[in-house]
Every structure is written in structure tokens, then in C-alpha cells.
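Lab notebook, bench 4. We co-purified these components, and the gel suggests they stay together. Before we commit to crystallization screens, I want a quick structural picture of the whole thing.
Request: model the full complex, all chains together.
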Amino acid sequence: MNPLFDRIRERLAAKVNEAAEAHGVLVLRIDAAALLDVVRGLKDDFRFDMFSDVTAVDWLGQEPRFEVVWHFYSTVHRLRVRIKARVPEGEPRVPSLVGLYGAAKFMERECHEMYGIAFAGNEDLRPILLYEGFMGHPLRKDYPKALEQPLVPYREGFEPGRE
Amino acid sequence: MELKLPNPVRPAFTAPSRVDTTIVNIGPSHPATHGTIQIIAELDGERVLRADVHCGYLHRGFEKECEAHTWHNLIPYVDRLNYCSALINDFAYCGAVETLMGIEITPRAKYLRTLLAEYSRVADHMTCVAAALMELGAMTAFLYLVTIRDYIYEHLADLTGARVTYSFGRIGGLARDLPDGWLTRLEEILAQSDDFLGRVHGLVDRNRIFIDRMRDVGCISTADAVNYGYTGPILRSTGVPRDLRKDTPYLAYAELDFEVPTGIKGDNYDRYYVRMREIDESIHMIRQLVELLRENGQGPINVEDRRCVLPPKPLVYGEIESLINHFKLIMDGPQVPAGDVYVAHEGANGELGFYLVSTGGGTPYRVHCRAPSFVHMGGAHLMLEGYQLADIVPTFGSINMIGGECDR
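Here is the predicted assembly.
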């Protein structure tokens, strides 16, 4: 394992449930409540200055159902860290990173509308790729792929879903 | 018939902050924004005070659709993310699947992918610079650049059969090898592009009108750029040499000699210049790769791995094992071991990342694309606020938002 990864693991041991390296990336499994502490540690002590990405995976049928996945990159060390936290369907809530990274504003909006993950602290969770009034969260596994919600009404006599 | 349609967006602000300001809506179908983007701006005279950027008009459910197809069937979809440099998407996606499967591609595939990625980058940067110049009225420079771009498109059509969306990557290699004479034509195009790029430099670099519109307009600092997740030419234009090809080398980049051009203060002029210099560096790399192909790049383009690469046609028709192999690969898809991976390549616009989750089957459980354009839109207001309304056009052009990858 990369020596920096070892140091991160040591420093954050109290807050991390499981740490492993996979394909050159350090993967940390944490509880959602520990997110801000872990990310602040990564940013301030280990110079992970770039927030690359946040997304989620819907493990329908498992409990807790959702896995939120964050990716961070250090432009200094040129290394990546992936953080994973599971959240239940009943309360899919994780802390927002808008206070630490500006990039979080847009990316959390996308994850919010696609999976219904609530990012506590992000005041602006308006739809971004979808539109106002869109019902449901399309990337959830129980959202049917063929379901249409047209903003512009269909022409008279047109049946949706017919090829 | 009168149609009353609901507003698809909710503006961040609806009331002016002062009595002497106006709120205007720009886009999503404005002739000066090449790409469907909507900007709601508060203006003080002609100065932009606040800007609220809305994307999503090209959203077509890329990630949802990916979950319903085999790993191989996604290649035409990833082509349509950044359609100005589709091959880079192909290779980033294939690279991510290969990482999950533990496949190392052959030297020839590695050099060819690198060459084609750089060739695509040249075409992408030329498109971006040409469009930005044309919007400022520089029609001659536009025509020089798109002439070369069209040569590149035709040349890639000779190789792949398509001009824009090539579907040329394959898990484990490439769709086919180079046709005869392809590298000869490549050198002809590169030689002509050197000439035409020189003419573009001569036309605009020290042109008073161009400098007045570009210098000190749309500035972004390195700190802001990093904070907002900027990568690629925009981050480099602020003066830092951050390039994944150098920092975390993949494909054949570790073997190549190239510089990472940087700007001075992250304004429109720097973004123009960084892209022009990157074209030079890419051409320099392509010439090295032609040599590397000749010296070390002989041999097959696909790995010998029946988990993902189709067996040769004579065997499919000649023996039952290969026929079944072919059938299973087409119908069930390549069986990718369970796990997840994030692979990032330096796309023409910045960090293009693929986060893939496999549960061990022939279709992905989750495909997520970290698209540079989408992240760049998150901080676009920083480059618009404080400048003139008319500056939105060159600034937006120099960000090079590509709707296909931004909205997915």
C-alpha cells in the first residue's frame, strides 16, 4: 500500500470502519455522520484539494439500500481516495460538502435528483439535469426505464410507448 | 391552439437586488451559445451582476440506459458524451472495464489508442477555438481550423467508417487495425495543420480586437478553479501544470516527451492560447507515436482473452466452441468480475472519469460518468459575473461546454 494511504488510515482510524486499496485508489467505508470529519482531515492534513465526484449506487433489496460514493483527488500527491457510506431508504441523508468544496454544489444537486439523497447543508437542491415537477428519482432501480414524463403534451392520437 | 407550458427551471433569483437592475434570460436556444444552456442573469446596465446557469436540456438518461445493456453495447453510447472527441470517451470507458477484468492491452493497441486520443484532442481543440473565434467574427481563422478538422474527420472515417461517433474502442483492444497508407495521410494532414495553425496565430494572437475581447475577460484564479473541481485547459490556463497524462500516466503517455502548457491568469486569452499550444504538443506526441508504432508496436491489436474479445470469424464458422463463445459474448456480454473502479483519462475538456460497478454479470450494475463539462458549469458563474453581457459569448465559448457530456 502507498505510504500516504497508510498514514491516512492511521490518522483517520477512529472514524473509518474499513480501509483498503483497490486499483490504486484508497477506499474508505465510513458512517455518513463521520463524513465531514473524514473529508476535513483529508483536505487539511493530506491536501486532497479536489472534489472530483459524488454519486450513489442503489442496492435494491439490501439494507441499508443506498451507497453514496465520493471521489477526491490530491493535485499534490496525485492520488485518489474513494469514500463510501451506506444510507437507509427511510432516511437517505448525508452531510453536504458545500462548505469545503465549491464543486459540491452542482454534483450534489445531480445526485439528489437522481437518487433522492438529501445533502444536509446544501441549500440549493433544485433539479439540474431534470426539470421542475419531475416525479421520482430516475436512477433508482425501481424507477422503470420506459416511464415518460413529458413536459410538452403528446400530439392527439399518439400513444406513448408504442414503437 | 395556445399551449401553456410549465417553466422547466426555477431561477435562483426572481427579483432584482436593486431598483436599477434588470433580470434577463439567455438561452437555452440562443444563437451565440453553441450548446443548449440557459443563463438567467441580473444586469446592471450591460454588466452581469449575478448569473444562474441551467443545464440539462440535452439529458437523455445515459446512465439509466447503460444499466440495460451489455458492457460492449455501451461503446456507441459513450461516444455520444463528448462528441467532439468521441475516441477519448471510448478508450476511457474500455480502459475502466479492462481494469476491472485485469486485462493489459497489447502494445500496438496501447500506442494506437494514445495516437487516436491525441488526434481527437487536436480535432476537439480546433473545434473549440474555431467556434470561439467565429463568434467574435474571425471567419478566416474559423475556416482554416475547421478545414483541418474536416480532414481529420474524413481521415478517421477511413479508419473507423464514421466521421464523428466512431464506436472504435473494444474491450481488450480496438475494432480493427490501420488501413494501408493511413499513417502517410496522417503526416500530410499534420504538415498542413502546422501551416494553418501558424496562419491562425498570425491572424489573431496580436490582433487588437481579439486581445480587447479576450484579455482580462472571464478570469478565474487557481484557488477558485481547484475549489470548483476545474480540470483540463481551464485549470492549466490559470497557471498550474495539472494534467492527468503527466500526473497519473496511463496508456503510453509515460513514454512520450511532451510539455504541459500553462497560462498566466486564467482569462479567455489564456484559454485560447493553452488550447493552441496543446494542439502543438498533441501533434508532437502523434509524431512520436508513429515512430513507436513502427519500432515496438507491431503485433495484434486485441488481447488473446476469450472473456471479452470475439474469436476470429473462420473459427466461429468452423468449430462449435468458438461459435458458442461468440454467441455468449454477444447475447450475455463479457462477464466482468464483481467490484467497482474509477478510471480517469485526460479528456479534451478535463478529467473524464468512469465509475463502474459490476456484480459479476454481462451488464453493468452502475455506470457513472464524471463529465468535465458538467463540473465546469458549476463554477461558470465565476467567469461571467462582473463582466459585460457581450463577454458571455467568448467566455462561454472558451469554457467549451459540450452538451452531450454535460447533460448525459
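The CA atoms of residues 15 and 34 of chain A lie 6 Å apart. Worth comparing against the SEC data before the next meeting. Chain A has a mean pLDDT of 88.
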